[in-house]
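Dear colleague,

Thank you for sharing your sequence with our group. We've completed the structure prediction you requested, and as agreed, I am returning the results in plain text so they can be pasted directly into your records. Please verify that the sequence below matches your submission; if there's any discrepancy, let me know and we will rerun it promptly.
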Amino acid sequence: MAKTTFGTTSASLLPWLGLALILLIADQLTKVLILGYYQLGDATYVTSFFNVVRVHNTGAAFSFLASASGWQRWFFTAIGIGAALFILWMLKSHAGQKLFSFALACILGGAVGNVIDRTLYGYVVDFLDFHYAGWHFPAFNVADSAITVGAICLVLDELLRVRKAK
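Please find the predicted structure tokens below.
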């Protein structure tokens, strides 16, 4: 294994890219199914707290900027591409750090999944709808879930790193 400029040995990038690819495929497959079987606004009751719906999100998380005039499509696409390139660089530099690389791979797979949606459709396809007693969490998708898991793992990785340094 080769030494990196950060003083740690680098491992193979391939497992992390493989994980990102699996998440990307799962995300796109589920979105194709939703687009094929549901019309915009359709919903299927699954449990007392969960529905499968078809929602189009032209904004970012929690529909941030969804009501803008359309420029946000390309803005969020550019952010997603920039994030993916940065994550690839980080993965190459830190592939041996398992939790950190796992987190980055999750975020990468999710980011690319949502970039594909924005590029192809002009919106992100969301379909997981959780609710309770009249309260609805904004609908989301597999890519959003992967990004969330990745973000949680990044925080956990940093907390463990700080704890280990003490």
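Summary note from our side: The chain has four helices and four strands.

Kind regards,
the structure core
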